[in-house]
Structure formats: structure tokens, C-alpha cells
Design goal:
Blueprint (H helix, E strand, L loop, with lengths): L2 H9 L4 E6 L3 E6 L2 E7 L6 E5 L2 H9 L3 E3 L8 E4 L7 H17 L3 H7 L1
Antiparallel strand pairs: 1-2, 2-3, 3-4, 4-6, 5-6
């Protein structure tokens, strides 16, 4: 897995934007809310994303993962190397994170996105 492959997965969802935040993090957003962050200045490349509440404990203790700094309280995990997940797993977790973030958007923004 590489950054370009993750970009393709992220952009396969509707109304996704991407930008650089904090100087070196590639962020993918829906309605200006982040659903995936890729650390560009890290080796290996890491990525953080939101998971289901019931998945958080298991995922944050899985080998190669930890609670995401600053956002763990919102059930975000950090994959310390993007290669710890297969393309199929990335597809699942990116889509799930996108949906979890999109579902929390205000009704007005959801309407504008459609």
C-alpha cells in the first residue's frame, strides 16, 4: 500500500476533499471534517482514521496500531505503517471512517453535499 493507492480509495467516496494541514499531514475530508490523515513526513508512512466504538479497543491494541494522538477519545486509531493493512482492509476502514464522519455532519451540510 502506498499514499497514492490510499488517495484513490479515499476519493472513491462522494464529495471528498484533500489538503495539507499542520504542514505535513495529508487530510481527506467530507464536509470539511477529516476522516483520514496520512503522515507525510514519517517513515514508515502512518495513517489515522475513525473506527466503530466497539472496534476501538481491539484495533488500538492490534500489532502495528495505537490510539491516535489527540483524537483517541473520538475513537480514532493510528496505523503506524500503512502496510499493516491490505488494500481490501483499507477499503473497508476508509469507507467506514468516511461514513462515521459523514453521519455526524449537520443536516444542512449533508444536504449541500447531496
Amino acid at each position: 500500500m502506498n499514499i497514492e493507492e490510499l488517495q484513490v480509495i479515499c476519493k472513491s467516496n462522494a464529495a471528498v476533499t484533500e489538503n495539507i494541514k499542520w504542514g505535513n499531514d495529508l487530510c481527506f475530508c467530507i464536509g470539511e471534517k477529516i476522516f483520514l490523515v496520512i503522515g507525510l513526513d514519517q517513515s514508515p508512512t502512518s495513517a489515522a482514521f475513525k473506527v466503530l466504538d466497539e472496534e476501538f479497543e481491539e484495533m488500538s491494541h492490534r500489532e502495528g496500531f495505537k490510539p491516535a494522538p489527540y483524537t483517541a477519545r473520538y475513537k480514532w486509531v493510528l496505523a503506524e505503517d500503512i502496510n499493516v493493512l491490505s488494500a481490501k482492509e483499507w477499503q473497508h476502514y476508509v469507507t467506514q471512517s468516511y461514513t462515521l464522519v459523514k453521519d455526524k455532519l449537520p443536516a444542512k451540510i449533508k444536504k449541500e453535499l447531496n
